[in-house]
Design goal:
Elements (H helix, E strand, L loop, with lengths): L2 H7 L19 H19 L10 H7 L9 H6 L15 H6 L5 H15 L6 H16 L2
């Protein structure tokens, strides 16, 4: 998969230079999708988060005390819909929802998401040239 294909594969948001460093000639597309997920999370963490008086819940933590819940606290009511990272690959299941879905292994979820991305990604402009070069290489290499 050439760089343009990889960029198209993840809608142009793929970080460069990910993949196999051992010189292999092939790599699973799921590796790119999983690496993209990790890089996306790392970039979000790198962007940081605010711990000022407005955005932290230190006063609420002190007020509620240990062993209690924050369900009716202002910060919870204000942030419960957007306080979680929503993965584009892995669903945010509760244990019950995961079990209802048949307890799918993460590898299966990743494979299905990768297949969906590959089906929906447009072919790169150089697709015909890329395929022709690959077929020529195979024909020459294996005397076909």
């Amino acid at each position: 998969m050439d760089e343009h294909s990889r960029a198209s594969f993840i809608n142009g948001h793929l970080a460069p230079f990910i993949g196999d460093s051992l010189g292999s000639k092939s790599i699973s597309p799921t590796t790119f999708v999983h690496c993209h997920e990790i890089i996306d999370q790392a970039l979000r963490l790198h962007d940081g988060f605010q711990l000022d008086d407005v955005n932290s819940a230190v006063d609420e933590i002190f007020k509620v005390g240990p062993g209690k819940n924050f369900l009716n606290q202002p910060s919870t009511l204000r942030n419960y819909k957007n306080g979680y990272y929503i993965s584009g690959v892995y669903p945010h299941y509760s244990m019950e929802k995961w079990q209802e879905a048949g307890s799918p292994p993460a590898r299966q979820v990743l494979r299905e998401k990768t297949q969906d991305l590959m089906k929906s990604a447009p072919a790169p402009d150089e697709y015909d040239e890329f395929i022709a070069k690959g077929e020529a290489f195979i024909s020459k290499r294996f005397n076909i």
